Fold this sequence. Notes:
This protein is about 25% helix and about 25% strand. It has helices spanning about 20-25, 50-60, 75-80, 90-100, 105-115, 125, 175-185, and strands at about 1-5, 10, 15, 35-40, 65-70, 85, 115-120, 155-160, 190-195, 195-200, 205-210, 215, 225, 230. An 8-stranded mixed β-sheet has the order 5-4-6-7-1-10-11-14, sandwiched between helices. It has a 4-stranded mixed β-sheet with strand order 8-9-12-13.
Amino acid sequence: MNLLLLSNSSSDAGYLVHAMADIRELIESLPQGAPAVFVPYAGVTRNWDDYTALVASALADTGLDIQGLHLAQDPVAALEGAAVIIVGGGNTFNLLGQLRRQGLLEVVARRVREGAAYLGWSAGSNLTCPTICTTNDMPITDPQGFDALGLLSFQINPHYTNAHPPGHRGETRAQRLAEFCTLNPSMPVLGLPEGAALRVRGHKVALVGPHDAPLFKGHEEPRMFRPGPVEISA
């Protein structure tokens, strides 16, 4: 498999700018004008046409020919013909629900396993996990099940931070992930900080970006990974 999973899309540098070198590496073997499909379904308050235009503009210099999946007359055919599948962030429940209702979830998973490159961020990264149960999003719609693409054998928590503002009495992110791990002791969860990403090549996984990332599992103390190869076993 050939995946790049970002924690975030925007930064002070601009939209997807911080990840552009990694994006170029992801698609370096593809010819100019290679067909790419953008899945905008995580957008809720963001119009899907506008979302697609934003991503196409940000990736214009890559030479990809980007089509919004929502505009395809035959979404299955669009995915079948795509050299790159791009899945944007937003609300993970809406993203999963839309793909499941259209019968596209299995198509995306199969195409990535067959060799289509996959670029995702935030909700798009969550979607590659066994389930979406470690998303930060509110369940604003019923996706008819939490099972996701299952391209990874572990969970991701994008936008990971354990910040705890003074006076805030709610749980930290680490506490929330500990709740998940208590009820799912055999399933690891990698906290992916802003600016970080996972690069998946075949069965090899690497942490890229400037930050370390914590791995949560069961009742164990979180294990910290430095940028570089990552070995995670369920």
